[in-house]
């Protein structure tokens, strides 16, 4: 009798695990209708030829020169580098551009004459010092814009015990930068938030009678209400980004002339960056691929150049409104989600493109999601056990730190971004956002750059280089 009961429990357990694994692999009709078409090898190759021989001219999409001083906080990151590049491309004086970060931006940008000040934004004294350094006499009288794109990205953590690891940079750092910007007389402050602040945590351990996980399909726009409780966010990262966003938005003040706003890039940002860039496409290229269970997952991605343009457009809108408050809607102190100008793609679309175009070795072997989900819980339990009770246990590896349940909360759900509000005209209360690069064009643009570097340096010099767990 006992043996029969144990057998029944075992069978039920196996069937339940199969049920959960199957649910995590489903593409519900609701999601499929939002993104019904997959890329083909032929269109990928055709788009790549265009990227090589007739690349998209980004300069046509840049807002006009504003003749201002600029401080870019986080200028060594993927987005910060592009903001600086676009400012230079539209004719702003390099002498009027200063970037603050732990690491310097690219050598190419430094060679143009911009100023780099090594800055730890968690130290308010250091931040104020970086802001107060003298400017060249010929630009010192120009008005000041601050772009704040510095952040620490720790997507795998969800327990409140680890919240300070994200909050110290993402919230305290933002407070320090905002305070220094106001004291330095800045009149425009644009901060990079995240589209993930509105993503709700999916529940994968479903009941036997449920077909798909809760929050498995989400459509996110500017009207989507962000979660209110910590446990509703996928992890600590969006908790801290939403808190920082609220501080920036509340600081907007038309009367004093200090205008603020936030851009929420869709999850996640990709594009041409330095060798240590942690955009998802860059990591895949450097790693030579990865085992994956995400091929069917539908999500929006956004090119860093499109995101940079959104920041510059928001600056332009705020400058225009400050100059003529009665003629345009007031969009100060708001947040706009932005993405690429195409329907959401699947991770499988990206895998196909990378596998088709990369001249360096790359593979994406398929694995079931459930064993990895179970393993992620084991890793999280170990990390919590060490943190609270047994600090003498060996430090967790990078793999353990990254593969925790929160990672599934942001990568597995089908999340479709609607940025139609940002695309509205200024007269309608939008940014006039018309991103020039589709995801297909943007990824082909990145692969052309990658393959060119691989040809110059050799594949061995590219794959496996510049890896790091977290970025700031």
TrEMBL record:
Keywords: Oxidoreductase. Residues 71-354 form the 3-beta hydroxysteroid dehydrogenase/isomerase domain. The keyword ATP-binding does not apply. It comes from the Eukaryota. Pfam families: 3Beta_HSD (PF01073). InterPro entries: 3Beta_OHSteriod_DH/Estase, Lipid_A_modif_metabolic_enz, NAD(P)-bd_dom_sf. Gene3D superfamilies: NAD(P)-binding Rossmann-like Domain. Belongs to the 3-beta-HSD family. This is 3-beta hydroxysteroid dehydrogenase/isomerase domain-containing protein. It comes from Aspergillus pseudoustus. The lineage of its organism: Eukaryota, Fungi, Dikarya, Ascomycota, Pezizomycotina.
